[in-house]
Structures are given as structure tokens and as C-alpha cells.
Amino acid sequence: MKKHVVLTLALMMGAFSFAQKKEIKAAEKAIKNSNFADAKAAITTAESLISAMDDKTKAKFYFLKGQALYSNGAGNNNDIDNALESFKMVVDVEKTGKKVYSSQVDDIKAQMGIALVQKGSTAYGNKNFGLAASSFEKAYRISPSDTVYLYNGATSAVAGKDFDSALKIYNELSDLGYTGITKQYMATEISTGEEQSFPSKALRDASVRQKTHTNQKDVNSDSKVGEIAKNIALIYINKGENEKAIAAIDKAKKTNPNDLNLILSEASVHYKMGNKEKYTALVSKALELDPNNADLVFNLGVSAGEEGDVDAARKYYDKAIQMDPNYKNAYMNMAVLILNQEQSLIDEMNKLGTSAADNKKYDELKIEREVVYKDALPYLSKVLELNPKDIDAANTLMNLYSALDDTENFKAMKAKVEALKNGN
Q: Which of 54, 122, 139, 340 could crosslink 149 through cysteines, CB 3.0-4.6 Å?
């Protein structure tokens, strides 16, 4: 009787072995023919027999399963996740034995990474930010040394307003110590005089040897630490978690206390939180590191104006204009700052009665108002000079000339406004 049992078990094991080989062979053939639906079906059948497989067969099974799920890039996000898990199982199974499929897994994963980056780039260009974020993140999981893919995933998540996913990735980047600093290979094109960046040192040097470029130099790109810390902080602020926002900035400052972009990011966070005094102090600190930055001076003007310090705001706008004579926004903000003084004069004029003293005061206030108008004119004129299509500046100038009884300039500006309204 025992002999019959042994014989029966042997027959059963033989049947299992035959079924394994049959389904695995069917999956392999289907994959070679790019018939991934049939390959998945064969893999599903073979999976029920996996407990009876030896390590060699298991490795091949997981290798084929990974390929079937990936489907040469056609698999969905869930399939790709499962494919990566299957490839991981190949490596685990072959860890102690002969590595028949592990090296092939590396090649396939490299192809997967390239395809995912391409998919992410295409999705981002099509504004499908969710797909872009998941594709870039998966590309990083395949190739953890390429942290820029993870950064691209966070950027895509922010663009798609998926702030929870973005926060998770940004925190991971922060924990990794990611800076985003890359070496850039620069040279000046002789024919145009423009400085250009090359994808590699070899290509840059070849252009210099061919005498199409000169003044070669290697420079490091700006650090992304400040941007990442700022984005983490702003997401926390939007979630109402201000303490975590400050903690994110403080964490970044431990390793980069004098990073200009980080200081500006911290300033932006405090501005968002309404801490104007802290904001001003940080922008002033940034100016010490970058004293020729007209944007920083302009921002101090904006902050001073919001705090009601008109004199300080005018001083900053004037300084920004001195640093950059074509700084349109500084001219515009200066004009607005000046014209804002009109309201208090109008309020006072409206309170006056009809007595001789009130009439005299009215005339004095009217002259003061005209002085305000004349003070704003050159700034608005410069705005229109820098941007001839700025209809708001043109319309305001027209009204000012009218109020000042400057008929000639009023008519000229009225014609300008009409032309702009008609698209000319």
C-alpha cells in the first residue's frame, strides 16, 4: 500500500512539474511575440503552482512575470509597481545561487527607467501632472542615484496641486540631503556673443577647439535647498501648520545658513505668515550677500509700502530704479505710492464748507493735489515708455493730464488709449 502512495505522489509531482513548464513556456513564447495579455494569463495559472517550484524555476517565473506586467512600457502604474516587485523577487531568489536572470533584470529596469522619464516628460508637457509625478517618482525608485527624478516628481505634484504627494516627496528629498547642484559646462558663442551651456565637457571643449566658442568655464548650478524648504513650508502654511513650516526652514538652515536662496525662501515664508518685520530683516540680510540685486530692494519697498512707511518705500523704489533704470514695476509702484496720497487730500476737501476760510483751504488743497499729480507723471510716463501697450498707465496719464488742464497732452494720451483699446 505504501508503494502505491509513493507512486501516486510521484505522479502528482510530475504533473505539477509538467504544468509549471507548460505555463512558463507559454508565457515566455507570448512575451517574445509581444502578446502580453496571453503572457499574463499563463503567469496567473503558473502562480498557483509556485509553491512546488525550485529556485531556478521561481527565478524564471518572476522574471517572466515582471516582463508580462511591464508589457514593454504599456503597463499601468499598478502593473509597473508589481513588475518591479517581481524583478526584486528574481534578485532575492538568486541571491545565494547562480545568477541567471538578475543581470537581465538590471537591463530591463534601465529600459523601464528611460521609458518612465519619457512618459513623465510627455505627461508634464500635456499638463497631465498626476501621471508625470508618478512616472518620475517610479523612475527614481528604479534608479535611486538619479535623485533629480524624485525632484521632478515633486515639481509635477505641485503643478497638479497634489500638495500631500508633493510634501511627502519634498520631505524625502530633504532627508536625502538633496541639493540639486550640478556642474554646468559653459562657453561663449563667438558669432553671437551669448554664453551657452553644453550637456557635457567633451562637447564644450570640442566647440572651443573648433573656434566657434571661447571663454570656457565650469560653474555649479544654484542649490535647490532653499526652494525645497520654501515649498515644504508653504504647503504646511496652507495646511495651517505654521510650526512645521518654520521647522522645515530651520532644518535646511543647519547645513546652509548663508545660502542666499534659502534666506529668500525663509523671507517668503514669513511674508506669507504676515511676519513683515522678520521678512524685512531677512531681505536686508540677503542684500548683504547680493548688494546689487534690484529685486531685493524693490521687495523692501513693497514691504515698507504695505506697512504705511511711505518715505522708506520711496527710498527703496528710487534705489531700485538707480540700480536698474528699466525696472518697470519700480516706476509703477512709485506712481501708485504717490497717487495714494491723493485720497487724504480729497477727504479733507470734501469736509470743507463754503466759508471764505474753507474756500481758501480748498484752493490750497487743490494745489497740493496737483503737486501729487505732477510728481507721479514722470514715473507713469516711464512705465508707458518701457511698455507702450500698458493701457492702465496710458489711461491714468490721460486722467492726470485732464485734471491738470494740460489739453495738448490729454488729447495725445486720449488718442493713445483709443488706439490701445482697438488693438493698435
A: 139
Q: Do residues 157 and 129 touch, judged by C-beta distance below 8 A?
A: yes
- Which residues, 6+ apart, have CB-to-CB distance to 334 below 8 Å? 314, 317, 318, 321, 379
Residue 419 makes CB contacts below 8 A (sequence gap 6+) with none
Residue 112 lies in a domain: no
Q: Is the pTM of this model over 0.85?
A: no
404: which 3 cell numbers?
A: 491738470
What are the strands of the beta sheet with 195-198, ordered from one edge? 195-198, 183-189, 213-220
pLDDT at 170 over 90: yes
pLDDT tens for 215-230 read 999 999 888 888 888 8
Q: Which of 98, 18, 111 is nearest to 60 (CA)?
A: 98
Same-domain status, 216 and 229: no
Please answer whether residues 369 and 352 qualify as being in contact, where contact means their C-beta atoms are separated by less than 8 angstroms: no
What is the number of structural domains in the chain? 5
| 396, three cell numbers | 491714468
Contact 68/36 with Cβ under 8 angstroms?
yes
Q: Long-range contacts: 395-402, Cβ < 8 Å, 24+?
A: 396/335, 396/339, 400/373, 400/376
Within 8 A by CB and 6+ apart from 407, the residues are: 401
Q: Return the exposure string of 160-190: e unless at least 16 CB atoms fall within 10 Å of the residue's CB, then b.
A: bebbebbbebbbbbbeeebbeeeeebebeee
For residue 377, is it within any domain?
yes
**Residue 309 is part of a domain; what is its CATH number?**
1.25.40.10
Q: How many CB atoms lie within 10 A of CB 136?
A: 28
Task: Give the DSSP letter string of 139-186.
Answer: HHHH-TT-HHHHHHHHHHHHHTT-HHHHHHHHHHHHHHT-----EEEE
pLDDT digits (tens, 9 = 90+) for 50-86: 777 888 888 888 888 888 888 887 878 788 888 889 8
Distance, in Å, from the CA atom of 88 to the CA atom of 145, rounded to the nearest integer, reads 17
